[in-house]
Amino acid sequence: MTNADVYQALGVFLAVFITHAIPFLPIPGYFATVYYATSHRDPVSMALAIIATALGASLGKLFVFLYGYGIGKIIAGDELAYAKKLFERISKLGIDIAVFIFAISPLADDVLYIPLGAAGYNLTRFFISLLAGKTVLATVIVLWAELMTDLFGEDVWATIITMAVTIALTVLVLRIKWSAVLKAYEEGGARQAAVAIIKSILRRA
């Protein structure tokens, strides 16, 4: 591994950090991870890509956590109140588990982290759960990039396909109406909430 490789990994960290530090940014910065992973396929570089991605995403979301209720209210509007109520229901299953589960998804986790920051949740416990989840996600992304490269044989196609999948998932998740999900959860539990999520994703604009 050369100094250039290390600098490129630092670029991955910065790209992921910046995009994750902005609440509700539609496009996450994992494209840099994918490009790095498809062009550096040795085990050391793969591990470095995972570490850079997990740390960048975790520190970025830590900023989101610290934004708290004030900025969250400006960005999310009334839906923040419903998201906070949903978080209060989820927390009965364990806040740390909820943070970990949301962290595994590359999308829409700000609806949990901002209310957590507003509620003054323990910073250390939050970051540990967050880092664990983002490490799992980063590992999946790097392995996915490796698989795409093996299948298509060209770095550019692996990157394009992963970008397309990420953008498609982003658009779908951003369509979730959390007020409807909360209402469904209160009336019928987790199963009805899942149905409400699917319905809100598939609803007409």
What's a quick, concise take on this entry?
One of its GO terms (cellular component) is plasma membrane. The chain is mostly helical and 205 residues long. Helix content is 82%, strand content 0%.
Counting DSSP E segments of at least 2 residues, the number of strands comes to 0
Q: What overall geometry do the principal axes of the alpha carbons give?
A: globular
Low-confidence stretches: none
SS class: mainly alpha
**Number of domain units:** 1
User: What is the first-to-last residue Cα distance?
Assistant: 49 Å
Transmembrane segments: 6-32, 44-70, 126-144, 156-174
InterPro entries: DedA_domain
Protein name: DedA family protein
Keywords: Membrane, Transmembrane, Transmembrane helix
Question: What do you see in this structure?
Answer:
This protein has 205 residues and is mostly helical. It has helices at 3-20, 30-39, 43-76, 79-90, 95-104, 110-119, 123-152, 155-173, 178-202. Helix 2 (30-39) packs antiparallel against helix 8 (155-173) and helix 3 crosses helix 6. The protein is globular.
